[in-house]
Amino acid sequence: MAPGRALDLACGEGRNALWLSQEGWQVCGTDFSTVAIDKARARCQELGLTIDFQVADAAAELTDSYDLILLAYLHLPPETLAQVLEIAATALAPAGTLLIIGHDLRNIKEGVGGPQDPGILQSPEGLRKLLDGLEIVRAETVIRTIEKDGQTVQALDVVVRAKSRL
């Protein structure tokens, strides 16, 4: 994608926001944790980047529009997740992209790590249903190889890429 305006929603300490900024994106990163945002701002300053980091709830209304909205490993109860995705979808610029990456529901039995509460885990099919008004470009479970206790193991993640309609 060509760089534009990006929102890293629930950005934590800002790893993805920092990377996007380094790739030429104009980035806003939000998280409910003041501690995480403070760490993100410090790292941003160290790297000489300009990112608008804000303390905000993921379910807060968005007033700007974005070419890219990223939700990485944001695990919420279904009702709250639906609300966050609806807000994110309405904040997409025309032909904007919503990218969701999270621990797949199947990861509990078939992978390692991540939350063990099936009520907050995601599936491609479940996310597809919540994004009814968007064009689904990709919705699948992917395998992520990680090192744990000196061994190579696999985690299952859900990846969804959706676009707003023109």
Order of strands across the main sheet = 3-2-1-4-5-7-6
Radius of gyration: 16 Å
The overall pLDDT, averaged over residues, is 97
Residue stretches low in confidence (pLDDT < 50, at least 5 long) are none
Outline the secondary-structure elements.
Elements: E1 5-9, H1 15-22, E2 26-31, H2 34-47, E3 51-55, E4 66-72, H3 78-90, E5 92-103, H4 107-110, H5 124-130, E6 135-148, E7 151-163
Parallel strand pairs: 1-2, 1-4, 2-3, 4-5
Antiparallel strand pairs: 5-7, 6-7
Task: Tell me what the structure shows.
This protein has 166 residues and is α/β, with parallel strands linked by helices. The two termini are 17 Å apart.
Q: Keywords, please?
A:
5 helices, 7 strands, alpha/beta, seven-stranded mixed sheet
Short précis:
With 166 residues, the protein is an alpha/beta fold. 28% of the residues lie in helices and 37% in strands. The protein has helices spanning 15-22, 34-47, 78-90, 107-110, 124-130, and strands at 5-9, 26-31, 51-55, 66-72, 92-103, 135-148, 151-163.
